[in-house]
Specification:
Strand order of the largest sheet of chain A: 2-16-15-19-17-18
Number of strands of chain A: 19
Largest sheet of chain A: 6 strands, mixed
Distance between the termini of chain A: 34 Å
Distance between the termini of chain B: 17 Å
Largest interface: A-B, 70 and 55 residues
Number of helices of chain A: 14
Number of domains of chain B: 2
Largest sheet of chain B: none
Strand content of chain B: under 5%
Number of strands of chain B: 0
Structural class of chain A: alpha/beta
CATH superfamily of the domain at 110-263 in chain A: NADH-ubiquinone oxidoreductase 51kDa subunit
Shape of chain A: globular
Radius of gyration of chain A: 21 Å
Oligomer: heterodimer
Strand content of chain A: 15-25%
């Protein structure tokens, strides 16, 4: 693991601001994992806020709700940021905010709880967007250690930090609920040393939730590394944490659960850190899912000059660059960053081994660049490409700017194509 | 050659550490600066001339050969030619004729680096390649008995620093570590060689594994084989270990690999000293180990998260590796005793030329579009 300059100070202060609703939203139906939801509205139809517009299709899939009241303009298929074809429901906002609520039910059992998560379309807000109802077990006794992932190891991002600072009561209400439903042995909030001021906030709740301070290293927030830091267990990449009684939820996800369980509101908006280089309105905003990136940047103070920027969704280490500013914010978008483009010079790999020392998974990333250059399928497997979590630590530290992550992503694609 | 320069990032991460190749090289130069000051104190302008000739020859060669063979015109910027030139000069006597130095520096860049495909692709330490070329092509000069008699050029005979601040018996010993006027240009201050090493260690430009391995095994073997101190130079051993053996492109990239490399390097160097190899034992030992460094990296992989190392497999492979290194060491010893090292260098020259002209692609899947 490595130390990274955090760039977080510009967004750490202040409360979460509300971003003005956009006039048109395009709500994505798929999460990055699993099957996309199935549209249940027709173009021209009027929808209310929080109304179900996409129904989960299969087990690993999540419901999608309307973030505003308005008219369905179209259901379009377009290429998403990862280059895959994706379906969006385009909504025209009528700004009347006529809303529905989730049907209230008393949550007593794991089965109730999982149903609530499913009804509210909760997915992992840290970026992976894995449906949360699949992660939580449906029976008691299985969940021993519940870990709240407050380790926001990506630079620039402070979305989880502001939630922990400003919405700690709500988060602890969810902890109490989970304690009641699952009766875990312990609940641990894992935060980084740089945020240790939060410890005083959670001091009041030490009966229900202990705080674990983690080093400020990257990628501390990665599930496997986090579980190791908290429990001492090193799980394999293929092992499900719940099989060892462990479950990790991100702070943003937990807040989503709060909204659903206590306010009857499904997952239709989230906290997004808007930040980057020379951004006047940098800060944390409540952003409705489906809001175009252009609207986010404009409302946050940046009007022009995007050509000189990498506009990135997520953090700068693992985030994805968007080339079209009408790309919408999804349930997994923790940040919208405008980072200035700087010319990079790439040298040959000098075998310094910095990437090997940086790799949290114990791999030799420079070998993937060689394997990719030589189309060497066997080398990809010998050096265990499948274990890579694409955290980007290797390329961050590389003094030669070798395109390691690009080689890794293309290498994984290459393996898929050659194994069919 | 694949496209080596790109203007934009096209994949994450979008932030990067500030230290680049140039930074790494600059740190090495910084760590050498005090050593160069002592070189001036010991051998005056002769030392500076050698350093100057070496640097100019290396930089000119880098520019010309890099343009001619690799079609790159900006490789001076990475600073590696400067480092090679300084390291090479540090292994030479202040009395080495300037044209021999120029030849060595130029060959270090060409056969040590450019013909391998440029910085990072080379298997052997360029400075040591240059040095071997000098001994092979200028044998009379490089082994002349008067080469090391530079007393006339000494600027400062003695520095009484520790004797001035403390008692004289231990002070004398410490002053000899601070400064003495025998040996090659880089070897006059043991103290500042070590401090340079510590600086590089703190800046993470080298790791402790290689020096630790070398020292432990070298001194263990000295004891076991009962070698007396006049057969080796402690300053030369330190300089070679800290600045040459840790050279990034020519040493392994994994921690356990580095440790193995250091341990075996210490053994090889000690055996060569034991077998009466006088001046070249460190160069030979490092060059022998350089040849195996990529193999060592692939045998001593880091432990994959959540998994256990296959110790049986690693031990087997390590034994084979050690056997191969031992064989090569014996072969080098034989060549040395038969005065046939030049032939090995000729073979190396021909090999690098052929390799450059007809690159072998060890691609298992030929030319597949990805």
């Amino acid at each position: 693991m490595i130390g990274i300059v955090s760039y977080k100070d510009q967004t750490k202060e202040g409360d979460i601001r509300r971003l003005e609703s956009p006039a048109v939203l395009s709500v994505p139906l798929s999460a990055s994992l699993g099957k996309p939801a199935f549209p249940v509205v027709e173009p021209g139809e009027r929808v209310l806020k929080n109304q179900l517009i996409g129904r989960a299709d299969g087990i690993v899939s999540a419901h999608v709700h309307s973030p505003v009241s308005g008219i369905v303009l179209e259901i379009k298929t377009a290429t998403n940021i990862s280059g895959k074809s994706e379906t969006f429901i385009v909504l025209e906002n009528d700004f009347r905010e006529e809303a529905l609520q989730l049907s209230k039910s008393d949550i007593q059992t794991p089965r109730n709880f999982v149903n609530l998560l499913k009804d509210a379309g909760i997915v992992g807000a840290g970026g992976a967007q894995f449906p949360t109802h699949v992660k939580f077990p449906s029976d008691t006794g299985k969940l021993k250690t519940f870990i709240i992932n407050g380790a926001e190891c990506e630079p620039y991002l402070t979305a989880d930090f502001t939630l922990m600072k400003n919405r700690y009561r709500e988060l602890m209400q969810v902890v109490e609920l989970i304690r009641k439903v699952y009766q875990p042995d312990k609940v641990v909030l894992a935060i980084e040393k740089r945020n240790k001021e939060l410890r005083f906030v959670f001091e009041l709740y030490r009966e229900i939730c202990s705080v674990k301070l983690l080093p400020d290293s990257y990628p501390q927030g990665s599930e496997l590394q986090l579980i190791h830091s908290v429990t001492g267990m090193k799980l394999k990449k293929t092992q499900l944490p719940i099989s060892k009684g462990v479950l990790v939820s991100n702070v943003g996800t937990l807040y989503g659960i709060y909204k659903a369980a206590f306010e009857g509101i499904p997952f239709t908006e989230r906290v997004v850190t808007v930040s980057g280089d020379n951004l006047e309105g940098a800060g944390n905003y409540w952003v409705k899912v489906g809001t175009p990136v252009r609207h986010v940047l404009a409302s946050a103070g940046k009007i022009s000059g995007w050509d000189n920027c990498h506009v990135v969704l997520g953090g700068p280490m693992m985030g994805v660059e968007v080339h079209r500013l009408d790309t919408p914010v999804s349930k997994g978008t923790s940040g919208v960053l405008a980072l200035e483009k700087r010319p990079l010079e790439a040298y040959n790999c000098i075998q310094c081994g910095y990437c090997v020392d940086a790799c949290p998974m114990g791999l030799m990333p420079m070998q993937f660049a060689v394997a990719y250059r030589e189309n060497d399928l066997k080398a990809f497997e010998e050096y265990r490409l499948g274990q890579c979590i694409e955290c980007g630590a290797c390329e961050y530290i590389c003094p030669s700017n070798v395109p390691l992550i690009d080689s890794i992503k293309r290498g994984k694609q290459f393996i898929l194509e050659n194994h069919k | 050659m694949s496209a080596d320069y790109r203007q934009v990032i096209y994949s994450n991460p979008f932030v990067r550490a500030r230290a680049k190749v140039g930074t790494v090289m600059f740190d090495v130069v910084l760590s050498l600066l005090p050593i160069l000051v002592f070189a001036y104190l010991a051998a005056g302008t002769r030392a500076l001339q050698i350093l100057g000739v070496s640097v100019i020859a290396a930089l000119v060669s880098e520019f010309v050969f890099s343009w001619f063979f690799l079609r790159k015109t900006n490789s001076l910027k990475d600073g590696s030619a400067l480092v090679t030139a300084l390291l090479l000069a540090c292994t030479l006597s202040p009395l080495t004729p300037w044209y021999v130095v120029a030849f060595g520096a130029s060959m270090a860049v060409l056969f040590g680096k450019i013909l391998w495909g440029g910085l990072g692709r080379n298997l052997f330490n360029p400075a040591l390649v240059g040095r071997e070329m000098m001994t092979v092509f200028f044998p009379a000069v490089m082994s002349s008995g008067t080469l090391w008699a530079f007393q006339d050029y000494v600027q400062v005979e003695d520095i009484r620093f520790f004797r001035a601040i403390g008692e004289s018996t231990s002070g004398e010993y410490w002053d000899s570590l601070l400064f003495k006027t025998t040996g090659a240009i880089g070897e006059y201050s043991i103290l500042f060689i070590v401090l340079g090493g510590l600086f590089l260690l703190l800046r993470k430009r080298i790791s402790w594994h290689i020096p630790f391995g070398v020292f432990v095994v070298f001194f263990l073997f000295l004891r076991l084989l009962d070698i007396s101190p006049e057969h080796y130079s402690i300053a030369g051993l330190l300089f070679g270990t800290i600045f040459m053996a840790t050279d990034m492109p020519s040493s392994p990239s994994t921690s356990s690999g580095k440790l193995y490399y250091g341990l075996v390097l210490g053994a090889v160097a000690a055996i060569l000293v034991w077998q009466q190899v006088r001046f070249e034992y460190m160069s030979y030992a490092i060059l022998i180990m350089n040849g195996f460094s990529r193999e060592i990296s692939s045998v001593f992989k880091p432990v994959v998260w959540g998994e256990k190392s296959d110790w049986k497999k690693i031990t087997g492979q390590a034994l084979l590796l050690t056997l191969a290194i031992a064989t090569i060491t014996l072969a080098v010893l034989q060549l040395h005793n038969l005065k046939a090292i030049p032939y090995a260098v000729y073979v190396y020259i021909i090999y690098t030329i052929i390799k450059f002209k007809f690159p072998i692609k060890n691609s298992l899947i030929k030319k597949q579009s990805v």
